[in-house]
């Protein structure tokens, strides 16, 4: 590649090389926006938080308000498709998009079917499900312990479809609206921690889910475990 | 183009990943990457050979495929619930301020959690965890620590706060040996020897020792990199005669060492580079050092595109690329070697200053002596530590006696710091100087003639002027 001087080919290549660089720069500079931005990078619609992980649990959002990021991914905001989380003894556990109105067998198909150890009779495959459901298929002989809400529509299937708004009326303390005195009624929550909850709420906006309490100073795993069944993050 | 095809692919790939991270469309990112590769080729070309066009097409197609693959992985959405109840294995445990950061690998991906030192399960343990998932914090300011990018480069997707956790089984396999070696070193060696041995073997930094080296601008000596891999390779090469036996034994020892050290980016990069070089020797076509470093960088980005944002990967790549390009100068004379040391400091200074807020000026002088000194000291540390670590009588006394030599180094570095107490912060002109030097080194390694070298080299600062 070493040459003694520049000839006309060199100048031609230099010209082409600079042209390529300018083209790359123009591309990078002009098309720096997406998802609701025009090509100059100006917002045309409110921008979602650009994270590459999407929370698919229904209690991560206020009831009835699909997140912008879920909408991007064809999530609960997409009326044609639902997102369900399939775990347990299936071939490919994970989060899947299935047509709206599907029943359990569709979610099972999406997850590749039962694995060898699955208890195939423990789950009612004809049961209806909801958008954002967590469906767990147990193994043979496994006790179906349910730590969470059991959907009456899906017997024998562990689901997490808790709608925060439903819990508001069931005597739970709403961490987004509760006064300090209400929060102090919770086990292990004194005036200082109650004030921390309110301060956190004021500084960061409403709690999206009860787990966000773990981010409040003074609330550790044990304290959260003791109060999680007594609180809701409904608005 | 024929000399450094991997560097051309690396340049295009880095450009694609950079644009994608800025929020450009996938197609735009990939096309921009290809254009940058093409631009470098055209600016470096001085004459057309018969295989020029096929080479160009192959390189551009490879750039397209690799960039597309990496950009798609960066852009991929990962669906996760808000809480998890799962089992996993602790694959990394490291000090994190006053606490420990634990990297947990599960069937749902890798997650990070922070715990007190006393509660941290040993690396390699199998645990059952029930916890809530949270997003990582993004940096509030330019140059601030970005928890999201840091952990994504380590493979983690979210932070988990454990509500309940149970250890199911203790460490096994390589993790067991890492823990075993760590505890033997910590229990049987005096402080300095223990610090250096931990850094050399399991890739763990002792807090006080790291602080000392950070002040002197030599903290890179405590990170497994090409320097350490080079010492090991030299040692193994002495034991075996030339031929396939040496290549195979060197490869095995090399990768065992990297696994034992916890596979840090710098170490894996150096091992890959050496492996590519060894494979080249095996087939009779040894790759240039510059091209091998570039190929190692491409492989690392393919494995985890987020490592592009890791300061360890960047520093390791910049330093290795510059040193491999300037390798011929180092061998020329002592003065040239000192000049390369100064230039290397200038090339890496903006990255160091960006990450650690400042870079000590004394580092220029200290590094010029540190590299030859530690290339002798590190094997000696290993040899003089061994009797104590394996429990031979008077081993501790031997190790303790050797500590004095390490103390002499400390006195030298502290004197140098007192003589040159200044440090510089990150500035844009410093970045521009660094990019010009890097550009010249890359063009030189690519075989561009001296009368044309500034032209391709100008691409680097131009790119930074537009996008930094």
Number of helices of chain A: 7
Largest interface: A-B, 55 and 63 residues
Content-based structural category of chain B: alpha+beta
- Order of SSEs of chain A: HEHEEHEHEHHHE
Low-confidence stretches of chain A: 34-51, 58-78, 144-169
* Relative strand content of chain B: 5-15%
Query: What's the N-to-C terminus distance of chain A?
Result: 69 Å
CATH fold topology of the largest domain in chain A:
Ubiquitin-like (UB roll)
Helical proportion of chain B, percent range: 55-70%
Tally the beta strands of chain B.
Answer: 8
Number of helices of chain B: 19
Cα gyration radius of chain B (Å): 23 Å
The class by helix and strand makeup of chain A works out as alpha/beta
CATH architectural type of the largest domain in chain A: Roll
**Largest β sheet strand count, sense and barrel closure of chain B:** 5 strands, mixed, barrel
Percent of residues in helices of chain A: 25-40%
Order of helix and strand elements from N to C terminus of chain B:
HHHEEEEEHEHHHHHHHHHHEHHEHHH
The domain tally of chain B reads: 3
What does this molecule look like?
Mean pLDDT of chain A is 69; it is low at 34-51, 58-78 and 144-169. The N and C termini of chain A lie far apart (69 Å). Chain A is 28% helix and 11% strand. In chain A, the strands form two sheets. Chain A has a three-stranded mixed β-sheet, with helices on one face. In chain A, strands 5-6 form a two-stranded parallel sheet. Chain A folds into two domains: 55-162, Ubiquitin-like (UB roll), CATH 3.10.20; 167-232, DNA polymerase, domain 1 (Orthogonal Bundle), CATH 1.10.150.280. In chain A, a hairpin with a 5-residue loop joins strand 2 and strand 3 (94-99). Chain A has 235 residues and is α/β, with parallel strands linked by helices. Chain B folds into three domains: 1-76, no CATH class; 83-171, OB fold (Dihydrolipoamide Acetyltransferase, E2P), CATH 2.40.50.140; 212-425, no CATH class. Chain B has helices at residues 5-21, 26-44, 52-75, 147-153, 173-188, 191-201, 207-216, 226-239, 244-260, 265-282, 289-303, 311-325, 327-330, 334-356, 362-390, 395-419, 428-445, 454-457, 459-467; strands at residues 78-80, 83-96, 99-106, 109-116, 126-134, 156-169, 358-360, 423-425. In chain B, the strands form two sheets. A five-stranded mixed β-barrel of chain B has the order 2-3-4-6-5. In chain B, strands 7-8 form a two-stranded antiparallel ribbon. The longest helix of chain B has 29 residues, at 362-390. Chain B is globular, with a radius of gyration of 23 Å. The chains are: A alpha/beta (235), B alpha+beta (468). The interface between A and B is large, with 55 and 63 residues.
